[in-house]
Amino acid sequence: MLEKNSKIALVTGANRGLGLEVCRQLAQQGISVILTARDRQKGEQAAQQLLEEGLEVMVKPLDVADDQSVAQLVRDLESNLPQLDILINNAGINFDFQQQTLAADLDDVQNTLNTNLFGAWRMTQACLPLLEKSQHGRIVNVSSGAGSFNGPRGLQEQGGGLPAYGISKVALNALTVKLSRSLLETGILVNAVCPNFTATYPGTEEMGARPVPEGAAGIVWAAMLSDDGPTGGFFRDGQPHLW
C-alpha cells in the first residue's frame, strides 16, 4: 500500500542491481515506490529485501518491450493513483561487448533497441498523463558512457564493438533531449544519467566497478531535482557528462 500524500516513483527493471538500489534509496527518502520487473516472482523477492529493511514498496509486473504489458500497467496505475511524480527508465539489456558492428546480428540489435530505447520512449508516452498530474514531474533515463562520442569507454574507444548497446544509449541520450524540449511548458524535468561502471554482476568489482549504491545515487539525484533544476542533460554523479 502506498503512503497517502507522498511522492510516487516507478522504477523499471528493478528486481536487481541498480534498479533495486534506486528503489531502496528513494524509499529511504519517504518516496512511495513501485518496483517493476518482467518476472513478478523475482520482483516480489526483491521487494521482500526492502520490506525486511522496513521500507515500503509495491510490486508490479512490466515488460517495457511489450506494448500490452505497458498498457496494462498504466491502466492499473490510472485506476489507483492520483499521479506519478517520478519515472525512472532503468530497464536495459545486452552489453554486447563480444559483438562487432559489421557482423552484428540485426535481430539482436533490434531487440536491444526495443528495450533500451523504445522501452523508455514507450513508458514515457504511456505514463505522461499521470506525470502531468504531478506538481514536480521527473523522468530519468538510465544511460551509459557507452552512449557518448568522446568520453571514456565512449564510441571512439569502443571501435566496432558494443554496437547494439552503444547505439541504443546514444539514441537514449538523444531521446532525452527531445523529450525535455517537448515538455518544457509542463515543468517535467527529463535527464539522462550514467551510473558509471557499476558492480551489478559478481566479479566486476575486481575489474574496477564501483559499488552499486554509488552508481544509484546519481540516478536518485536526478529524480529529486528541485523545480529550477536542469533538463535535457546527461549527468554522472550530479555533474554534466560530455556525450
Account of the 3D structure:
- Helices cover 41% and strands 14% of the residues.
- With 243 residues, the protein is of the alpha/beta class.
- Strands 3-2-1-4-5-6-7-8 form an eight-stranded mixed beta sheet, with helices on both faces.
- Strand 1, helix 1 and strand 2 form a beta-alpha-beta unit.
- The model has no long low-confidence stretch (mean pLDDT 94).
Question: Any key phrases for this structure?
Answer:
single chain; alpha/beta; eight-stranded mixed beta sheet; globular; 8 strands
Give a brief rundown of this model:
With 243 residues, the chain is an alpha/beta fold. It has helices at 17-28, 40-52, 67-80, 106-116, 118-131, 155-158, 163-182, 212-223, and strands at residues 8-11, 32-37, 57-61, 86-89, 138-142, 189-193, 234-236, 239-240.
Give the overall shape: globular
Overall pLDDT: 94
* Helical content band: 40-55%
Low-confidence stretches: none
Instruction: Report the order of strands and helices.
Output: EHEHEHEHHEHHEHEE
Report the span from N to C terminus: 40 Å
List the helices and strands and how they pair.
Elements: E1 8-11, H1 17-28, E2 32-37, H2 40-52, E3 57-61, H3 67-80, E4 86-89, H4 106-116, H5 118-131, E5 138-142, H6 155-158, H7 163-182, E6 189-193, H8 212-223, E7 234-236, E8 239-240
Parallel strand pairs: 1-2, 1-4, 2-3, 4-5, 5-6, 6-7
Antiparallel strand pairs: 7-8
